[in-house]
Amino acid sequence: MSEVFTKSMARNIYYGGSLFFILLFLALTFQTHQELPRRDNRAAITPKVAMGKKLWEENDCIGCHTLLGEGAYFAPELGNVYVRFGRNKEAIKRFIASRPENGIPGRRSMPQFHFTEEELDAIAEFLKYTSEINTNHWPPSVNG
Questions:
Q1: For 3, 34, 80, 97, which has the most beta carbons within 10 A of its beta carbon?
Q2: Integer Cα distance of 11 and 35 in angstroms
C-alpha cells in the first residue's frame, strides 16, 4: 500500500463503509420485524389490565418502583413481582392492602392507597401481564 492517502482511497472507504452499514441496518431491521410478532402479547391486554395500568399511572407507582427497568430505584422492581409472589394474584392483593396507614417509622415503606377490591384485582392483573412480557430475562434476578 502506498504511503499517500489519496482522494479516491478516501472516497472508496466512505462508500464502502456506507454500503456496509446500510446493509447491516437493513438486516437488523428485517430480523426485528421477524422477531416482534413472536413476542407480541397485546391479545393479553384486557380491560382489567388497562385499568391496572391507569391506577399505576394515577398513583405514581413509578415514582418509587421500577417496572421492566424503568422508573425510580427507591422500591423493588415490579416487572417480575407476580413470579416472586409464586404466581399468586391474591398474595399481591393482600400485600398491597396490608400496608400500614403511616408506614413503618424509621423505614421506607409503601403507603396505604385504600384501593377497592376491584382496583386491587386490576393492579394484580396488570402486574401479572407485565411479568409475562418477553424481556430477554430482565430483570436478571427474580428478586428484582
A1: 80
A2: 36
Q: How far is CA 11 from the centre of its chain?
A: 44
Q: How many helices (H) and strands (E) does the chain have?
A: 5, 2
Interatomic CA distance for residues 40 and 27, integer angstroms: 21
Share of the chain above pLDDT 70, in %: 96
Task: Fill in the DSSP letter of residue 106.
Answer: T
Rounded CA gap, 100 and 79, in Å? 23
Give the SS3 label for residue 70: strand
**In this model, does residue 1 exceed pLDDT 60?**
no
